[in-house]
Amino acid sequence: MGLRKKSNKNPPILSHEFVIQNHADILSCILMVFIVALYFQVSASFGSLFITLNHNITVNKTIGTHQYEDYNSLFTNGPKDLCFIFFYFLTLIIYHAVIQEYVLDKTNRKLHLSKVKTNKFNESGGLLAYYIPFFILALYIILNGYIPQINSLWIDYPTTILPWNVKIFFLLQIATWLHFYPEIYFQKIPQEDWSERCTYISLYVVFIAATYFLSFTKVALVLLTIQYFEQIIFHLSRIIHFSGKNEISKYGFMSWNIVFIACRLISFITLVLTFYFGLSKTSIPQINLVQQNFNTPIIRYNCMVAFGLLQAWLMWNFVNFHMRKRREKIGGDKKMLNFFSFKSSSTKNKNTEETKKKKRDSNRSKNPVSPISNHDNENNHQNHNSKKKL
């Protein structure tokens, strides 16, 4: 995801470079079709199908242990949610292009980073543009009374009736992580990074969509809040590190190490309390599609195992990351030791040669050879050669 170089030459229409450079403008034109449709009575229902929330119901009473007095209109999930996801899937691609061009690219030009660091900087910056607002929204929903107590995670199941902010949160989550797939193409991600990007994008899409359509929205909201808090600390520390403020980023990464382990532990405890102890009290033998109740032993245990394996996988990657860094550090220390040992041995050899040379010079100065003796030696050598010739 390097810096996009703007050239004066216009690429051919519908070529790859043309689509990459103008994808935000193309998608804006498509979105205008749905927005303009709202202005006409004939097509207003079609436009509202994509832009506004669907499957709304109106209730003015208490449902379960949760008070809905502040909400005049509530929603359920259904197939029309796919239209909402599609519209905001396109909108988020435009939002990402604006963040990339007017924030990340300008910052990269000032920092003068290498290609590898530029890719990581753009990844962290792009993810923070979604993590921070979603974390604030999730925290607002939780503190606003959607989950007043810890036992609300399983007492109110199935949570088929959702306030507007909860429903829009989950639909935007699905649209957000889906939009990262085309971003791999639009941002020109290096091919060696595709597998890593696609792995964590797919995990987010699958787990968020499953919890939304299986009515496990409350436990998913708590787990996402914990996950986003930990990711915000990591990516902020990485951006500070690439900005050249290594002292601040050092404390940031140290804090992230502690927060990461704490978040994995809290997430695992939440899973066990919800799926193993809480929901087992209201378990049903078969799925009830009318009430959207999926609290059967098979689904419950599979969800717990899947989420548990995800936490274990994250912890495994965390341990491998630190082990790799430690090996690199040890390897770097060994190279430095070898360098200094080689340097010291070379200086020792140089010193020994210098001492030998000094000894030879001192011996010559103590036993000087006279020029007469040198002349006699030369004469003797010449006489010896002449005798050989005779």
Uncertain spans: 369-376, 384-390
- How much helicity do the residues have? over 70%
Q: What is the molecular shape?
A: flat
| Mean pLDDT figure | 84
How many distinct folded domains? 1
The computed structural class is mainly alpha
Topology pattern, helix = H, strand = E: HHEEHHHHHHHHH
Radius of gyration: 35 Å
Strand content: under 5%
SS elements, strand count? 2
Largest sheet: 2 strands, antiparallel
Please report the distance between the alpha carbons of the first and last residues. Answer: 90 Å
User: How many alpha or pi helices?
Assistant: 11
Strand order in the sheet with the most strands: 1-2
Q: What can be said about this structure in brief?
A:
The chain is mainly alpha-helical.
Q: What does this protein look like?
A:
The protein has 390 residues and is mostly helical. The protein has one domain. It has helices at residues 16-37, 44-51, 81-111, 115-146, 152-155, 164-186, 194-213, 217-242, 246-278, 297-366, 371-389, and strands spanning 56-57, 74-75. It has a two-stranded antiparallel ribbon with strand order 1-2. The longest helix has 70 residues, at 297-366. The protein is flat. It starts with 15 loop residues before the first helix and ends with a helix. The model is unreliable at 369-376 and 384-390 (pLDDT under 50).
